[in-house]
Specification:
By secondary structure, the protein is an alpha/beta fold. It has 17 helices and twelve strands. Helix 1 packs antiparallel against helix 2, helix 8 crosses helix 15 and helix 15 packs across helix 16. The model has no long low-confidence stretch (mean pLDDT about 95). It binds NADPH dihydro-nicotinamide-adenine-dinucleotide phosphate (NDP).
């Protein structure tokens, strides 16, 4: 891990001791602390009032049993989590992840990141995250519904429009949010639209929420390119993943004149030099819920599928990692730089290892961290909350324009803050510091709570 001042090192050591074995959480904390040296030097009150130490300790961590019955009649037991990390700026806000790799350390890393991301949007939302080690792959619709109902049967008592507002993440999309909302409504006997975001358009959802994280990542990248007198036009782009974030990142890149030549899932990756056929990709991944290999079979135009090898070896101008944490390592970073990649923007949360992020920056590749680049999802969730609160619904065009404006604001705030604290051009420093100072100031105002 990188260099920290003595004060910050003490805080980090305490995090290691208090949270043994939670490596992803350690990584996320370290990455933020690395940026805070100049902030603590300029504002000792943050360290003196233990704001940073308090920020590293979740306000509340809930772990619960999720018992449910599968199609064969067998009782299954999963573990559910909700980490309510920080509510200085508003109700806890952050998605739910259903994936077999989920354990407390993953939820804490995501929740910690979420505090700074949400702060950076400038909107009134705190940070939280949740999920389960439930694996939706291969499960029938009925099984997914029964699992979601069992999960909400415990979660409902901890959430609410003014308390904690979950949304989707890996393994949790519109279908799951529907089942979760249905069970919340049934238990509480309240049509409390603002309790979840990512809802369907006919029952309280917002236009553009489905597309928002992917679109937002591309809008942020567009701003970074524009600041250097460049654009997506004619660029070759590689996107990892083929889920929610990846799909709509691909859509927006194509709209802006770039060509996405490769994407992936957990079983391998596809290279399609003519450009990924988005309708086909949606058919394979969203409708059939199948493997990416089927794309090649159906496409039949010279595209190829690889089960082994590294996606990041496919030459590109722009790389958008949109699948999962730590999927792009130092060797990948060197490969990308060597092949002429000029921008890496994180659609996923923490997809680049710390070594990769450092290698990219040293090689002169523009690096946009997820906290800034993928904040469009949660920002549009906050827009969904606004619409629910005012019983209104906006058009697609209006909501997309709001999203684009928010991403421009985040981009500019990152650059201005990086400049102010002596790291001109660093989106990492800018995102961490701008996210931190807003939430830290709110915590100072609220006293020691
Ligand atoms: P989805 O479940 O829709 O898609 C995830 C994609 O990543 C799938 O293609 C999946 O492959 C692949 N993937 C997941 N885990 C792994 C793994 N361990 N190894 C290789 N591939 C993997 O999730 P989202 O698109 O919603 O989320 C993707 C990332 O974006 C996550 O990091 C999430 O935290 C982040 N994010 C999401 C937001 C949102 O609004 N949804 C908001 C901000 C960030 P397969 O299909 O084979 O499972």
């Amino acid at each position: 891990m990188g260099n920290l001042s003595a004060k910050l090192q003490d805080i980090y050591d305490e995090v290691l001791t208090r949270n043994p074995g939670e490596t992803e959480f350690h990584q996320a904390v370290n990455e933020v602390l690395e940026s805070l040296g100049p902030v603590v030097a300029k504002h000792p009150e943050y360290a003196d009032s233990a704001v940073i130490r308090r920020l590293c300790e979740p306000e509340r961590q809930i772990i619960f049993r999720v018992p449910w019955v599968d199609d064969a009649g067998t009782v299954q037991i999963n573990r559910g989590f909700r980490v309510e990390f920080n509510s200085a700026l508003g109700p806890y806000k952050g998605g739910l992840r259903f994936h077999p790799s989920v354990y407390l350390g993953i939820i804490k890393f995501l929740g910690f990141e979420q505090i700074f991301k949400n702060s950076l949007t400038g909107m009134p939302i705190g940070g939280g995250k949740g999920g389960s080690d439930f694996d939706p792959k291969g499960r029938s619709d009925g099984e997914v519904m029964r699992f979601c109902q069992a999960f909400m049967t415990e979660l409902y008592r901890h959430i609410g429009e003014y308390t904690d507002v979950p949304a989707g993440d890996i393994g949790v999309g519109g279908r799951e949010i529907g089942y979760l909302f249905g069970q919340y409504k049934r238990i509480t006997n309240r049509y409390e639209s603002g309790v979840l975001t990512g809802k369907g358009l006919t029952w309280g959802g917002s236009q553009v929420r489905t597309e928002a994280t992917g679109y937002g990542t591309v809008f942020f990248t567009q701003e970074a390119l524009r600041a250097r007198d460049s654009s997506f036009d004619g660029k070759r782009v590689v996107v990892s993943g083929s889920g929610n974030v990846a799909t709509y990142a691909i859509e927006k890149v194509h709209e802006l004149g770039g060509t996405v030549v490769a994407c992936s899932d957990s079983s391998g990756f596809v290279v399609d030099d003519k450009g990924i056929d988005l309708e086909l990709l949606k058919e394979v991944k969203q409708v059939r819920r199948a493997r990416l290999a089927d794309y090649v079979e159906l496409r039949g135009n010279g595209s190829s599928h690889a089960e082994d090898g590294r996606l990041w070896e496919v030459p590109c101008d722009i790389a958008l990692p949109c699948a999962t944490q730590n999927e792009l390592d130092e060797a990948d970073a060197h490969t990308l730089a060597r092949n002429g990649c000029v921008v890496v923007a994180e659609g996923a949360n923490m997809p680049c290892t710390p070594e990769a992020a450092r290698a990219l920056t040293e090689a002169g590749v523009i690096f946009a961290p997820g906290k800034a680049a993928n904040a469009g999802g949660v920002a549009t969730s906050a827009l969904e909350m606004q619409q629910n609160a005012s019983r209104d619904s906006w058009t697609f065009e209006h909501t997309e324009e709001r999203l684009a404006e928010i991403m421009r604001g985040i981009h500019d705030r990152c650059l201005e803050t990086a400049e102010e604290y002596g790291s001109p051009g660093s989106y990492v420093a800018g995102a961490n510091i701008a996210g931190f100072t807003r939430v830290a100031d709110a915590m100072l105002s609220l006293g020691v709570i």
